[in-house]
Structures are given as C-alpha cells and as structure tokens.
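Structural prep section.
Before we set up the soaks we want a predicted structure of the protein with flavin-adenine dinucleotide in place, mainly to decide which crystallisation condition to try first. Input record follows.
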Amino acid sequence: MFKIVTKRALNDAVFLMSVEAPFIAKKAQPGQFIILRVDEKGERVPFTIADYDREKGTVTVIIQIVGKTTEQLSKLSEGDTILDFVGPLGVPTHIEEGTKSVCVIGGGVGCAIAYPQAKALFNRGIDTTVIAGFRNKDIVILEDEFKAACTDLIITTDDGSYGKQGFVTTALEELIQSGKKFDEVIAIGPVPMMKFVCSVTKKYDIKTIVSLNPVMIDGTGMCGGCRVTVGGETKYACVDGPDFDGHLVNFDELMSRNSTYREQEHACRMMAQAK
Ligand SMILES: Cc1cc2nc3c(=O)[nH]c(=O)nc-3n(C[C@H](O)[C@H](O)[C@H](O)COP(=O)(O)OP(=O)(O)OC[C@H]3O[C@@H](n4cnc5c(N)ncnc54)[C@H](O)[C@@H]3O)c2cc1C
Ligand code: FES
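Run finished without errors. Recording the tokens verbatim:
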C-alpha cells in the first residue's frame, strides 16, 4: 500500500499528489513515469514523475481528471492509500553533451511532464526557455515552479486571458525569428500540439524530442499496447520511450490508436460519476 502524503488542487481539473514510495524516489530521474492501480479492480494507468524527494521518500504526480480512474483518484485524500505504485519506468530524458540552449514546451497538463525536464536542464546550467500553453487563465498551472526552473518563461493562452495570446507554436516561431538559437526543443502535451511543434522545428532544422502518451497496460514491453511507429519502426513507448525524435513519429497513427476505446472510456466515466 502507498500512502498519499500531500494532495492539492492546481485548478478545477488538475491536482498534485505526493505519495510515499521511497524505493521509487531513490531511483527516479526526469522523463520517467510510474504505473498505479487504485485498488484490486483498478485499471493500470501511467503518470509521469513530476518531482521526487529522495530524503522524504516521496514521489509527486500531477493528474488531470479525464476519466474513470483519474476521477477516482481525485476523490482520495491525504492519508488514504493506493494499492499499487510501480516504477520508475521508461528511459530517463537524455541530454546531449555540449547542449547550451533548449526550449521546453508544455501544453496543458503536459506542463506537469515538462516541469521536471526544464528543472533538470536548468540545474545543469543550460539556457532553458519554457513556453507553457493553456486554453485560458483559469487552467494555468505551475507558473511559480517554472519561474524557478528556467531562464525565460512565456505563458500563452488561446483566448489571450493571460500571458501572450495564441498557440505555443506562434511563440516558438517568434523566438526563432527574433534570432534565438535552440540546440533542441522538447515538446510535451496533446498529440496535435506536439505534431505542430515538430512541423515548425523541422522548417528550422532543430532537433525535437516529444514525450508520447499511448495507452499503456503492463509498462514492461510485453503487451504491445503502447506501440508507436518511429522512423518506420515499431517502438514500445514504455520501454523505448516515452521520449522520441518528434520528426520521426507517426502522430496520425498515435491519434487514431489513442481513440480506440473512446466509447468504453466515456461509458466507464459516466458509471463512475453516477456512483
Ligand atoms: C507515459 C505516460 C505519462 C503520462 N503522464 C501523465 C501525467 O503526468 N498526468 C496526467 O494527467 N496524465 C498523464 N498521462 C495520461 C494518463 O495516463 C491518462 O489520462 C489516464 O490513464 C486516464 O485514465 P482514466 O481512467 O481517468 O481515463 P479514461 O477515460 O480511461 O481515458 C481518457 C484518456 O486517457 C488515455 N488513457 C486511458 N487509459 C490509459 C492507459 N492505461 N495508459 C495511457 N493512457 C490511457 C486514453 O487515451 C484517453 O484518451 C500519461 C500517459 C502516459 C502514457
Ligand atoms: S505498455 Fe505494454 S508494451 Fe508498453
């Protein structure tokens, strides 16, 4: 059993949870994730390790309520326990030697995944620009945390209610056109956002890493659930990723595979809400 030691809302649909998991906290690195199961009938669901405290033995995850399990998790309180909490899984984010300047782009709850990556780069002395994009002001998360973990922070909102109006891709292209040089761009968020970031960076020939979010089940490379096509080859996001070269990812296939269970997911959420 894994005890929830801290829980707090970041906005109406996103909350942060620190869980007592000393063995995971000891080994966790940016870019890795955990798979949890709320109870013995629970689905196995993956969440990125947003932060960890090796001394306290805690691992922090940031969760957006989108369906049955995330709804169930949102109803747990500090002191409650989760049955299974497994990790760290996946390949840690790799930063090439000699990297001087990186732009980390987060979209919505993707910022939860972008945050540990920005923090790790910044702590290594790399010039780190963060572009964090949201639909509107009400759902902006992690602003203070990002401010402490990057060189420059640009917040964009689709409706202009906070920060700069427009999409993350517009802010990125403006920076590039103003002469800012990036050795690498890291983009994490909804699949269409990552796809559009990649089409911008391809024009300017900037290496781009994306963090993929296919449906995962075992998280050990055995079930095939998380298969994605990268550079024409089949890869398993749980063991080969979740980070991949964005210019080689087949995003259309990923979007199509991610919508396979939409009807069942909707029915499950309706049942969970009715309880
Ligand atoms: C490596 C990885 C890291 C992730 N990190 C985060 C994170 O830090 N914060 C966060 O809020 N979300 C994260 N996600 C997404 C998160 O796993 C899903 O939102 C969650 O599984 C939804 O479960 P549900 O029962 O609430 O919703 P459902 O109604 O079951 O599904 C809603 C959506 O979540 C996706 N999903 C459902 N089941 C799974 C599954 N087993 N594996 C992956 N995706 C699934 C579906 O494609 C669907 O679009 C991550 C996904 C991956 C693969
Ligand atoms: S989750 Fe089963 S192979 Fe990746």
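Observations: The chain has two domains: 2-89, 101-211.
Flagged for discussion at group meeting.
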